[in-house]
Automatic annotation (TrEMBL):
The keyword Ribosomal protein does not apply. InterPro entries: Galactose-bd-like_sf, GH, GH2_Domain-Containing. It comes from the Bacteria. This is Glycoside hydrolase family 2 TIM barrel-domain containing protein. Keywords: Hydrolase. It comes from Microbacterium gilvum.
Length: 939
């Protein structure tokens, strides 16, 4: 029997029987024929762990993922979290149960009468990891793809009931690297199961095997390359009808019928010889008005393809649809161009973090939410770090106009490597071929790398990989890997240089070591290149963990790491400050991201960047690097609109030589426009200086009706804002506005500080750097300012201006160890030093080179006036400005740099404000300390 149209496949979703094969005896004991009676019911699609099957987490759990910080196993602080039945690992989100091994699944299906005699296709989408199939006890085959559906061709079955048995093994089939996000417990977890579509369908004797769509933007045309497969001794003769349609309105725009004659040998067919097939190339003109696909106008087309063939006298039919976009991506010098227009990549990473299920979603709605969130924050690229998303992600990205950077499932490092003849080399080629075959038509699939940060003979091996697959499928840009190597074969280099902070920079990184300004760019790097640079994993700035988030983990993954950090904070007497720590560190995190992103946008000829990241990374010791949490939800301290002011298609930029100014000197800046919109923009370019309350202090126009071209090379003549009388320290805001025609309006802003000459009058306050003198004078009744020299502080807390980079546990304690300063902006000590309770640029002079004091030995009630926020792995009580009563006197201990000499207007203003407070009526510390307490602060 033949089919006029392809019959609907059987949906195999639903109830299955399942048994975990902990001892690896399933095949020996005949489980492929029938599962033993202790098998339990389970739902597929799904994972065994998500449905409660597995083992309680133990200290020696069989994790997939490297562990850098061994403190959990050795440090007494972690002893309560190593107890049987109560293990809480601080490395990553912890599944409620863990299982590594084989799981067996079985169910019966009924083959319809009209399917009898037809070979069948059995498909499982998103399997982790290796699947082996038996039907009625007979072997069908095995598959091991981490990226595409497992597909099995099944010999014809008789009508009636049949038993399908599937064995899924989530152990390391190929060493892709223990930290690869395709397999690692650092992110999605090492789940076991099948989580996507599960179908069984009959195969026509001749069928459409593959369609590849190659757009020609200049000609508004497309070529469809159609492979026809045959399970007989030939594909016979037939015709292929291709209809092009607009997806938005369903309108037909082109139709072509192509004939072929591949021949057929009945004698060979009757002897079971399986050879044959055919190929057809079809070109369709889509019309001069055919819209292009890009981030601004994601117009989609579809090709509906029908095969009508005659094989041995029998009519055979098959049909398929593929969706595509008229899109071409190219390299123009050091720029990336989409459809010929220069494009600046503003990306973030998706690291397979799905806490509720522990595995990635396979529905379009879930992915649409993620991409919509990215777009709201001004991004146009999502990089999939060492994994490839499912089909639904590509569909959602096509609709959203999101550019995807896709990688093979490799992070061949930390014990794995490539180019040395290991099985992973062949696996990479297999997986890349499968990825291109499955997802290659999607216009959102714009960039491809083999994986992340390889080890081994990577440059030699990946040069051949890039050359090969660029030839196989030239519809996207290729790079060897995310991170390295930067080889000649690359279309673009995705490298970690340049960026504001590298691993190992510590307090020597730019924002920690150099006074604040907004002029730095990376033009020197661009000048040395002949192809685009895309910044690799820039940012990595942490906020304090949101401990209120713990209750959101209602699925498979538990935030037991957060529970550990909460306990540490409780033990230090600071649990009530967790929300303040989050808010203060979060605002500093945003400040760091703003400067880092603007540095890239200021660089002419730069290709773009990938943030690490817009959302948190819960693995590798817990890296809370996002303004969004692991659920892609806001942490409340930064709105999408605020983020998009400095990270979007069109961003006004101000080049300022400094952030802090003296009253009486002109504020100088140069305006620059980064405009990577859909088309050039005609607009007024305006500036204003306003007070914190929004009152305009000065304003002007840089241009009226200016035509802003695509790019970031538009700069305007420098502006010098005449000085004005300032009676007291003032924070002001420089605002740049692009006021375009219609609704096009873009703004960006920078806080600045203007300080009048500060009279530093100590009055009766004793100022000293000598601890013994300070204690003695205070005990006798004096008011004392003790300025602690950094050389006298013996603790190992590295106080920085920026927040923590990645996290201190996984960087071997890289500095800084702090996440900014917490303080009460309404406290009178700050009357002459405008601040808002978080770290902003005016604090740089005070923090640079300073130290934090450890207050753990002081009474619990001592809360500093300025409190550095410690890394959550230590949760020490820290202080940088402390007040107390000592004997009959009063003392302020400062470890900030209060040196008022030289070009340090902020430090001078703070010192004056501090001394005025100490000389005034509000200086009334309540804490009482002994001399030994003061000495203890230094040790």
């Amino acid at each position: 029997m033949t089919f006029d149209t392809a019959p609907a496949p059987l949906d195999l979703a639903g109830g299955w029987r399942c048994l975990l094969d902990r001892e690896g005896v399933g095949e020996r004991d005949g489980w492929h024929v029938a599962l033993p009676g202790d098998a339990v019911g389970i739902r597929l699609p799904g994972s065994v762990q998500h449905q409660g099957l597995g083992d309680t987490v133990a200290v020696d759990a069989p994790w997939t993922g490297g562990i850098v910080d061994r403190a959990f196993f050795d440090d007494d602080r972690y002893a309560p979290y190593r107890e049987d039945g109560a293990v809480s690992v601080p490395f990553w989100l912890q599944p409620r149960v863990v299982y590594r091994g084989a799981a067996w699944f079985a169910r019966d299906v009924v083959i319809p009468d009209d399917w009898a005699g037809h070979p069948l296709a059995l498909e499982f989408e998103r399997v982790h990891w290796e699947s082996t199939v038996w039907i009625d006890g007979l072997p069908v085959g095995s598959e091991r793809s981490l990226t595409t559906a497992h597909r099995f061709e099944v010999a014809a079955l008789a009508a009636g009931a049949h038993r399908i048995v599937v064995r899924v093994d989530n152990r390391t089939v190929v060493d892709v690297g223990p930290n690869a996000h395709s397999v690692s417990d650092h992110t999605q977890g090492n789940w076991n199961g099948i989580v996507g579509a599960m179908t069984l369908a009959p195969l026509p004797a001749v069928r459409i095997a593959r369609v590849r769509v190659f757009p020609d933007v200049a000609r508004r045309a497309v070529t469809a390359r159609i492979d026809i497969a045959s399970g007989s001794a030939g594909a016979g003769a037939g015709e292929v009808t291709v209809v092009a349609r607009r997806v938005d309105d369903g309108r037909d725009v082109a139709r072509v019928v192509a004939r072929y004659d591949a021949g057929y040998d009945r004698d060979l067919a009757e002897r079971g010889v399986t050879a044959g097939g055919a190929h057809v190339d079809v070109e369709l003109a889509l019309g001069e008005d055919a819209p292009l696909w890009d981030e601004f106008h994601p117009a989609l087309h579809a090709l509906d393809i029908r095969l009508d063939a005659v094989v041995g006298g029998d009519a055979v039919h098959d049909e398929t649809r593929t969706v595509f976009g008229l899109r071409e991506v190219s390299v123009d010098g050091t720029r990336i161009a989409v459809n010929g227009r220069p494009t600046f990549l503003r990306g973030t990473l998706e690291c397979a973090v799905f806490p509720l299920t522990g595995y990635p979603p396979v529905d379009v709605v879930a992915w649409r939410r993620i991409f919509d969130t990215c777009r709201a924050h001004g991004l146009n690229v999502v990089r999939f770090h060492s994994w490839c998303p499912p089909e639904a992600a590509f569909q959602a990205a096509d609709e959203a106009g999101m550019y995807l950077h896709v990688e093979g499932p490799l992070w061949a490092n930390q014990g794995s490597s490539i180019g040395e003849g290991r099985p992973v080399d062949a696996f990479l080629y297999e997986e890349t071929e499968r990825i291109l075959r499955a997802y290659g038509d999607h216009p959102s699939f714009v960039f491809m790398a083999h994986g992340n940060e390889p080890a081994g003979r990577d440059a030699e091996f990946l040069g051949g990989w890039v050359r090969h697959f660029r030839t196989v499928d030239p519809r996207r840009l290729y790079t060897s890997a995310a991170g390295w190597p930067a080889i000649a074969e690359n279309d673009f280099d995705n490298v970690p240089e340049p960026r504001a902070h590298q691993w190992g920079d510590g307090l020597g990184s730019r924002m920690n070591a150099d006074p604040p300004e907004t002029e730095t760019d990376y033009s020197g790097w661009v000048a040395t290149r002949d192809r685009p640079i895309v910044g690799h994993e820039i940012g990595q700035w942490c906020a304090y963990p949101d401990l209120a988030e713990i209750d959101a983990y209602t699925g498979l993954m538990e935030a037991r790491n957060y529970g550990v950090f909460a306990d540490f904070l409780e033990a230090s007497g600071m649990r009530d400050q967790a929300g303040d720590f989050l808010a203060a560190s979060g605002r500093l995190q945003v400040l760091c991201y703003k400067e880092e992103i603007e540095s890239a946008l200021r660089t002419e000829g730069f290709g773009g960047f990938h943030l690490l990241g817009l959302s948190d990374f819960p693995g590798q010791g817990t890296a809370t690097v996002g303004v969004l949490n692991a659920f892609w939800q806001s942490k409340s301290y930064c709105t999408p609109a605020e983020f998009a002011r400095f990270c979007g298609p069109t961003v006004p930029l101000a080049r300022l030589p400094r952030r802090v100014w003296r009253a009486g000197e002109a504020i100088r800046f140069e305006a620059q426009i980064a405009h990577f919109g859909a088309e050039p923009l005609r607009a007024d370019v305006l500036w204003r200086l306003e007070s914190v309350g929004g009152e305009t202090l000065r304003e002007g126009a840089l241009a009226r009706g200016a035509l802003l071209p695509i790019g970031n090379g538009t700069r305007f003549e420098a502006v010098s804002i005449a000085p004005w009388t300032v009676a007291e320290a003032q924070r002001v805001r420089l605002v740049l506005t692009i006021d375009g025609e219609g609704a096009d309006r873009f703004e960006n802003d920078w806080d600045l500080w203007v300080y009048p000459p500060a009279s530093v009058d100590p009055g009766e306050v004793v100022q000293t750097r000598d601890v013994a003198e300070a204690i003695a004078r205070a005990e006798r009744g004096a008011d004392v300012l003790l300025e602690v020299s950094p050389a006298d502080v013996a603790n190992d807390v590295a106080l920085g201006f920026t927040t923590v980079f990645w996290n201190t546990a996984w960087t071997s304690g890289q500095a800084p160890h702090t996440l900014g300063l917490l303080h009460d902006p309404g406290h009178p000590v700050f009357d002459g030093f405008p601040t808002d309770g978080t770290t902003d640029w005016q604090w740089w002079e005070l923090v640079h080179g300073a130290r934090a004091l450890v207050l753990d030995g002081l009474p619990d009630g001592v809360r500093p006036l300025v409190q550095p926020i410690d890394t959550w792995f230590e949760a020490r009580r820290l202080g940088a400005l402390i007040e107390a009563r000592v004997g009959r006197g009063r003392i302020v201990v400062s470890s900030l740099d209060l040196d008022a000499d030289g070009d340090r207007p902020a430090a001078r203003a703070f010192r004056a404000s501090l001394l005025a407070y100490m000389a005034g009526p509000d200086f009334a510390p309540s804490a009482v300390l002994e001399g030994d307490d003061i000495h203890g602060l230094l040790g």
